[in-house]
Amino acid sequence: MSNIPADLKYTKSHEWVRALSDGNVEVGITDHAQGALGDLVFVEVPEAGKALKAGDAFAVVESVKAASDVYAPLAGSVVEGNAALGGQPELINSEPYGAGWIMRLKPGAAPSGLLSAAEYQAHLAAEG
Amino acid sequence: MPFNPHTPEDVEQMLAAIGAKRVEDLFDEIPQDLRIESLAGIPDALNEMQIGRLMAARAAQDGTPLNFIGAGAYEHHIPSAVWAVTTRGEFYSAYTPYQAEASQGTLQLIYEYQTMISSLTGMEVSNASLYDGGSAVAEAALMAIRAHKKSRSLRILVPTTLHPHYRKVAVATAGNQNVRFEELPCPKGAISVADLEKFKGEDITALVIQQPNFFGVLEDVDALTDWAHANNIMVIASVNPTSLGILKPPGVWGADEKGADIACGDCQPLGVPLSSGGPYAGFLTTRMEYVRQMPGRIVGRTVDANGKQGFALTLQAREQHIRRGKATSNICTNQGLLVTAATIYLSLLGPEGLARVANVAHQRANELVAALTRIKGVKLAFERPRFHEAVLQLDRPVAPVLAELARRGIVGGFDLSNDYPELGPALLVCATETRTPADIKAYADALTETLKAAVRAA
Questions:
Q1: Which domains does chain B have, with CATH numbers?
Q2: Domain count, chain A
Q3: Residue A2 lies in a domain
Q4: Which of A117, B2, B62, B133 has the smallest number of Cβ neighbours within 10 A?
């Protein structure tokens, strides 16, 4: 059973969103997503200042078996990409909701359509 | 045994299984008006004996002229061992094998090729090869756009000293992907930093520098590389591999030896004969920092479950069978046979042999230029350091002069009039280690007589 913290928001494409105290949000991929990808070997994080629309691909996570895009859960401008992932992509495997965050974003508009933990749980169950 | 994948019975069974009557029914969705029933101008089939005679007659028409054309493809001596080994059954495949890891010998050869090309260019990583030098520039431009995160412009500066065919291939390959190739005129036969200054502060993704350039002139690669990097522009080097026997490799271009970001070129000079323009092989190298943006296949060395050395295709997550539409390129194979020839050529010559070839070619080209520019009506276009080619300007149209030289058994050079009308009647000539002093004298004599005769005729 994958870990789905109750205090985060989620997308159907398996990203999570955490509201930070400074008004920015942190984004990463879920425990389910990292488990499906397997051992990550490379993560391409976005440059600070990049403007994103909701649904834009902003990062690439590459595992031993696949390379996948990560999509922006909401619009905004990138505050920073997680530089630590350059040397330690496996942080996403070990701490998907912590040190494995991928970017911090200054939201451009109020997010819409994000899932609660319970809704994401139901989505996973439905995806089977 | 002829290759008959399906007997008529097989075809019938397959059609029955999908409920089609005839093979043609499978193409129903192609509108009738787009189809042609027969091709005009295609002669009747010939048998093997007839085709053998036809080809022998055609080959005889070529004769064995003395060749002084380079312009991107060079006549070099190819040791017999190169093709004796390359055409062995074990190597005789045009591609990376489909079941790649089952062909350890082929993978090892490609790995050795990558190692040699990396070492020759001074770059950290090479792919398994591309089609040719022109498509390598196109792929390098697309790669620079992926790799240069801070540049959004898709602008690639291409000096006119880059091979005109390479420029056309780049536009044809990448132009429809919104890449803007901006031509930079180089009236002095080389890129000048002063001419680049007008782009200062603009968002430009990459600058292409060919060394030696299309005119055979050596570009000031250190100053150009430093200027580009100071202006946040990536450097794509397009280099002649033979010249790297004696010239500074692109991996250390620049005062700080930071080097080009991508170095590419054509493997043809490395053991591949001139053959109506191909097939050749392109090489492409970069720094590890950009390896995931690299197009093409890459062979890596690893160990198997028992700790024994083995070779495998690596970093495949970039490639289209995994990454689909977002793959780094559509290059999903390599020029296996020509890579084999290049690898064997390089291993036979070694660094010392390659340096000797490069040195002799350089010397012979200097002798050729000296001999031809002594002739009235011939002058050197660019007084600059060269490798093994030079641009000569004639006092009359080039084409008739080349035609007369051809009648005298001499292929006198590449007519630049179409690609560079601004140079007037200009001719690009080349001499490699295959041209002897006697060959050079024969050319000079023939040109002297040709120009004199033309004066008399006039």
A1: 66-76+351-457 (3.90.1150.10), 80-343 (3.40.640.10)
A2: 1
A3: no
A4: B2
Using the beta-carbon criterion (under 8 Å), do B323 and A47 form an inter-chain contact?
no
Whole-angstrom distance, CA of residue A70 vs CA of residue A81: 13
In a domain, A45, yes or no: yes
The CATH number assigned to the domain holding A87 equals 2.40.50.100
Query: Is residue B390 a contact partner of residue B380, using CB atoms and an 8 Å limit?
Result: yes
Judge contact between B311 and B298, C-beta under 8 A: no
Q: Mutate which of B146, B326, B328 to test chain A, going by most A C-beta atoms within 10 A?
A: B326
- With a cut of 0.90, is the ipTM above it? no
Q: Find the Cα–Cα–Cα–Cα dihedral A49, A51, A54, A56, rounded to 10°.
A: -90
Q: Is residue A5 domain-resident?
A: no
Mind listing the pLDDT tens digit for each residue in B194-215? 999 999 999 999 999 999 999 9
- Is the pLDDT score of B457 beyond 70? no
How close B323 comes to chain A (CA, Å)?
A: 6
Any domain includes A4:
no
pTM for the full predicted model: 0.87
Q: To the nearest whole angstrom, how far is the Cα of B234 from the nearest Cα of chain A? A: 17
The range of the structural domain enclosing residue A72 comes to 10-127
Binary contact (A65, B318; C-beta < 8 A): no
Return residues 66-85 of A near B (CB < 8 Å): 66-67, 69
For residue B315, give the chain A residue with the closest CA. A64
As a whole number of angstroms, the distance between CA B87 and CA A110 comes to 65
Residue B134 to residue B165: CA distance in whole angstroms: 7
